[in-house]
Every structure is written in C-alpha cells, then in structure tokens.
Amino acid sequence: MANLTTKYMGLNLKNPLIVGACNLTMETDLARQMEDSGASAIVFKSLFEEQINLESMQMEEELNEYTERHAEMISLFPSIRHAGPEEHLDKLRKIKEAVDIPLIGSLNCVYPDTWIEYASEMEKTGVDALELNFYASPAGFETSSCEMEKEQLGLLKTITEKVKLPVSVKISPFYSNPLYLIKQMDEAGVAGFVLFNRLFQPDISPSKQDYDFPFNLSHPDDYRLPLRFAGLLHKEIKGSICSNTGIYQGEDVARLILAGADCVQVVSAIYKYKIPHLKKILDDLAGWMDEKGYGSLDDFRGKLSKVNSKDPYAYQRAQYVDLLMKPFELLKKFPQV
Predict the structure, then answer these.
(1) Are strands 240-244 and 263-266 parallel, antiparallel or unpaired?
(2) Are 286 and 25 in contact (CB under 8 A)?
(3) How far apart are CA 86 and CA 88, in angstroms?
(4) Of 263, 218, 269, 227, whose CA–CA distance to 245 is shortest?
C-alpha cells in the first residue's frame, strides 16, 4: 500500500493534503470533519489587520453615535473598546484543542509593528506553524518594486527571529522575479513557501454600472503556474514547497509532486465537492501510485522538475515559441477555429 507521508516545514504529515485558509477552517465541527476525511494539516482562516481596524472603527462610531445627545448618560457605563485580534486568537485556540493534526496560523497585516505583535500573539495559541501572506497591491506610483521587496524581507527576518515556530510565506506570482525573491526569503530562514496567493480582483457589472466582487473558485487548470515554479524551485532552496490553487483531483496532487512539491493546499475543491472529497483525492493518489509502482512520495518527487528533466526546454519559453512556429498544428487540434 502506498505510503503518503511527507514533511512540510519540519512537520511530519500523514499525507500531502492540507486544507488552506478559508472560512470553513474556523468552525470546530468542520475542522474535525476535515481531519476525519484525511486532511494532514489545517490552515486557520487568515487574521486580517485591515478587517480588525475596520470593525474597530465601526464599533467606535456606533458607541459614540448618541454621545452629544445624551452627554449626561456617558459616565453611567464602563468604557468599551474593540477586542482587537483576541476573538480570532480565541477561535484559533479552540480549533487547536479540537484536532490532532497540525494547525497553521495565517496572518495578513499592514504595518510592521502589527505583523510582529500578531505573530507573537498567534504563537502563544499553540499553533504548530505560521503562514504569512506577503503580497502588495500597488495603487500608486510612488513606491518601487525594490522598496516593497526590501521592506518585506526586513520584516520577514524580524519575525523569524522573534518567533520560534516554523514560518512559511504565501506569496503572489506578481513579483518582477519571484524566483529571486524566494531565494532571498529562503536564505532569511523561511521554512516553507506556498505557491501562490490567490488574489481576488474587482469586477464591473455593465448592467448595474457599478463594482462587483464575485467569489470565484479556482479553475482546474490553475495548478499549472504553481507547478512550473515548483519544478523550478525543487532542490534549489532549503525551504519546503507547497503548491496551491486549482487542485481538485488525486492526479493534480501527483502532477505537483512530480514537479517537486512537498505538499499541496486545497480550498476550492472543498467548496465545490464538500469535505468528504478529501478522502477521494487521497484514494485516487494512492491508487495512481500503486498503478505506477511507487511505494512513497519520495520515489517520484521532483522526477519531472527542472533539475531532473531530460527536456532542457520544459520550463522555458521554447514551448511557447514552438507553438507560434506551428500554427497549423493548432488548427488540427481545434478544427472549429
């Protein structure tokens, strides 16, 4: 029978299937279902500093809405303030107590001091590791890409020195050279990399002539970008590689491990097919391994990575150029065009 065990950030996992950060991981009953269905680890929903700040401002407005009208009543009540991240951290503690598999805390902050403060507070909850969501959504023209990356690297070094937990970074693919940045982060002590952060972009409704914010699940082919980078990074960095996005079936997991990933994260697959689908993914992966004669993940991990590939152009632009040079081959594949 296939051995699915793997390691991620030094954590021993029973298989490579991790449930990524989402609303579902906040519920104790659902977290237990994920564990029972085969999840090897769970990433708790991200703690967003912006959300806490917004809730705090809304609460302040509501508490002071009638202050001027009833000034004589203010002293009758104790001062009330927003709990900050404590509610989130309390739920994190409860999930940690409810499951036996590793629990990873996820963090997304704005200001350097808050990154450090919240990372330290999250460590106290007993989680097994931290996942930092690093990405920039530029809305102005003043800051250069170098400045953004330098700031993130400096912050990362401070956090890894401050906390004793293994730290992973979930980054976006929209850096000028993600490989260069990952290498620098790897040298700064990052224990793992999640490829990639799925960023939700606004849309516009022509009928309403207004902004629209649809909740879009990943598409089955979205695994190709993290696959490419997993293949490029295998054996080139010390940190673990976790592929994320577009992973729905056991064969998708096999693809990414062949490229060089240590594990994967799934979210959309659970929303689309429900939590028990995790078991099917694992059963299909094990079945594929038995069929191919692989006893463990290490038997084929990175087999088709760049460092092990017999095709020197597999991870280059040559394939794209090759397609451009053979337009009639495309017409044969798609005769309706």
Answers:
(1) parallel
(2) no
(3) 5
(4) 218
Give pLDDT tens digits for 86-127: 889 999 999 999 999 999 999 998 888 889 999 999 999 999
Query: Taking Cα atoms as reference points, which of 85, 145, 134 lies closest to residue 114?
Result: 85
264 contacts 216 by C-beta, under 8 angstroms: no
Instruction: Sort strands 11-13 and 6-8 into parallel, antiparallel or unpaired.
Output: antiparallel
Report the distance separating Cα 294 and Cα 145, nearest Å: 43
CB 125 within 8 A of CB 89: yes
First to last CA, the chain: 46
Residue among 226, 236, 229, 240 at smallest CA distance from 191: 240
- Indicate whether 81 pLDDT > 50: no
Contact 46, 108 (CB under 8 A): yes
